[in-house]
Amino acid sequence: MMNDHARRRELRATYKQNPPEAGVYRIVNRVNGKSLVGSAANLVSVRSKMAFARSTDMPGALDHRLRDDIRQFGLDAFSLEILEVLEVEPAMTAAEIRQDLATLEALWREKYDPALLY
User: Fold this and answer.
1) Distance between CA atoms of 75 and 73, rounded to whole angstroms?
2) What is the pTM of this model?
3) pLDDT digits over 64-104, tens only?
4) How far is CA 15 from the centre of its chain?
5) How far apart are the first and last CA of the chain?
6) Which of 30, 42, 61, 77 could, after both became Cys, cross-link 53 (CB 3.0–4.6 A)?
7) CA 36, CA 66: separation in Å to the nearest integer?
8) Where does the pLDDT of residue 27 fall: very low under 50, low under 70, confident under 90, or very high at 90 and above?
9) Count of CA atoms in the C-beta half-sphere (13 A) of 114
10) Sign of the alpha-carbon dihedral angle for 14, 46, 87, 98
């Protein structure tokens, strides 16, 4: 049986070998065409927040800029799209990942009409 310290070391090593998927996403209001473009170091967490909001009917897990439209149109009017996944190298620091994500997010924002962004 493995002790807690050895188990944590194993989990940390696995995490470093398989970092979470980082990237740029878009939450789209399919009723009015508006969208929220964002980025995250862990896209699974964004998917989980969306699933949690739907399963509990509690939009508080999502970005506050969406709340008025969620109240008006309901959560079913929104969908999540992954726009781009960042290639994370093992040598990259958290700051480098955040900077790359900010750059990618800015590039994706330029592709959409500012009037249709949250």
Assistant:
1) 7
2) 0.83
3) 999 999 999 999 999 999 999 999 988 899 999 999 999 99
4) 18
5) 51
6) 61
7) 8
8) very high
9) 3
10) negative
- CA–CA gap between residue 34 and residue 116 (Å, rounded): 4
Between residues 4 and 52, which one has the greater pLDDT? 52
Residue closest to 112 by CA, chosen among 21, 22, 29: 29
Q: For the chain, how many residues are written?
A: 118
C-alpha angle 53-49-21 in degrees, rounded to nearest 5: 160
d(CA 3, CA 22): 31
Q: Which domains does the chain have, with CATH numbers?
A: 20-116 (3.40.1440.10)
Task: Encode 12-26: b = buried (16+ Cβ within 10 Å), e = exposed.
Answer: eeeeeeeeebbbbbb
Single-letter amino acid code for the residue at 32: N
Q: Give the span between the Cα atoms of 32 and 100, in whole angstroms.
A: 30
Residue 112 has pLDDT above 70, yes or no: yes
